Amino acid sequence: MLDWTVFIPAFLTAAVEWVEAFTIVLAVSLTIGWRAAAGAALAALAALAAMTVATGGVLGLGVDVRWLQLVVGVFLLLFGVRWLAKAVARGAGLKALHDEGEEFAATRAEVARGDWMASWLIAFKGVLLEGLEVWLVVAALGLHAHAWTSSAAGALAALFVVVAAGLAARAPLRRVPQNAIKFAVGAMITAFGTFWTLEAVGGGAAWPWGDWSLIGLAAFYAAGGFALIEVLRTTRRQTQ
Amino acid sequence: MNAFLKTLFGDAGTVSVVVIIMITERVFVATGQVAVAVFTVPPLVLAGTAWLATR
Q1: What is the pLDDT at residue A222?
Q2: Rounded to a whole number, what is the distance in Å from the CA of B32 to chain A's nearest CA?
Q3: Nearest-by-Cβ selection for B14 from A81, A197, A202
Q4: Interface membership of A220 toward B (CB under 8 Å)
Q5: How many angstroms separate the Cα of B20 from the Cα of each of A77, A200, B27, B29?
Q6: Domain limits, chain A
Q7: Which residue in chain B has the smallest CA separation from A71?
Q8: How far apart are CA A238 and CA A98, in angstroms?
Q9: A227, CA 20 to 30 Å: which among A2, A48, A105, A134?
Q10: How far apart are CA A188 and CA A198, in angstroms?
Q11: ipTM of the assembly?
């Protein structure tokens, strides 16, 4: 039985990252062919799958969950504040929106300069780096709710949807509302990061409403993010 | 290697924000003010986010 509270955030986070990875693989495939580019992507996905299995194995060995909460919580904060800050800056017009078309052109230009192996490595590295964030969120959500299956299923479902949509379009997926998704996921994973790190550094069951506090934290960060966008947009207009 | 580290940790600004958050949480816990931390840390995180967004 799927845990939808885990499946949905895992799906959304993974979808954003897979869209970016697909753009890179698509650009590389035009230089070294579909088979080689897909091979590079599969090699990176295999490495990520091995990392996910190893993470689950570490948990099975009985490692102190508090240490894992601390490590994963810190990484969630690192990702969460970064994503939220980027989404706020883009929403306020301080930073250009992420454009898959530009990413595609930049990767095309990069592979045009390199040889077959260099292009293969660009596809491999692209999928591995984008997938690292997916792995972290899958691990974090799986760890929190003991819902590894739902967490991994969310990431895998996102992969299938993105690849299917990408193959159907045969073009970078530009219509995905990446900034809105990054904003929502940024708020969610920042909430998880705050929740876990405070508990792990010794706060014990610090949060007044237990796991329900996560919803309050995510709502706080989302509302705060919206307020920040408005304030920064107004300030920007006044200074122009 | 650089790209790998940057993907994992982000830039120096992001790392600084998270280090400040962690130190603040530890100080609250060490001084027995966990109940205060619950209402102080989230605004601090948001302030850090605002700073990162405006850099």
Answers
A1: 95
A2: 9
A3: A81
A4: yes
A5: 12, 16, 11, 14
A6: 4-239
A7: B22
A8: 25
A9: A134
A10: 16
A11: 0.93
